Amino acid sequence: MKTTPEHNERISKMTFASVYPHYVAKVEKNGRTIDELHQVIEWLTGFDKDKLDALINEKVTFQTFFQKANIHPNAHLIKGVICGYRIEELENPLTKQVRFLDKLVDELAKGRKMEKILREG
């Protein structure tokens, strides 16, 4: 499934702070911890807990969030389908990065081992 320009625009304007509570609820509901969630986010973006808290408080958009991020060199190893989209086929770089994060959170919530989530090549 291809994304539309409107879809990509909507994602870019969404705030990370509006989605973060959903990530927390999803992982906690499935027996994982906020610390594990932060570990996954830090692996992908380079943001430690303090930086993450600051970005949440600033209510940055996903566009700004990922502009400030230092994306892990192994992020390209994140593959599969999330929200009906095959990650490898996404053309918009920002939409792809947001879906990388969604996929990692999904894997964490589904009980995948941390070593597998944090793709080390």
- Helicity level, as a percent range? 55-70%
The number of helical elements comes to 7
Record the strand order, biggest sheet: 1-2
Looking at CATH, which topology would you report? Helicase, Ruva Protein, domain 3
Termini separation = 27 Å
- Any low-confidence stretches, pLDDT <50, length ≥5? none
Could you state the CATH homologous superfamily? uncharacterized protein sp1917 domain
Which CATH-level-2 architecture?
A: Orthogonal Bundle
CATH class: Mainly Alpha
Number of domains: 1
Radius of gyration: 13 Å
The secondary structure category is mainly alpha
The pLDDT mean sits at 95
Query: In this structure, how is the largest beta sheet organized?
Result: 2 strands, antiparallel
Report strand %: under 5%
Oligomeric nature of the chains: single chain
Number of extended strands: 2
The topology string of helices and strands comes to: HHHHHEEHH
Task: Indicate the overall shape.
Answer: globular
Protein name: DUF2200 domain-containing protein
Organism: Aequorivita viscosa
Pfam families: DUF2200
InterPro entries: SP1917_dom_sf (IPR023204), UCP033199 (IPR014580)
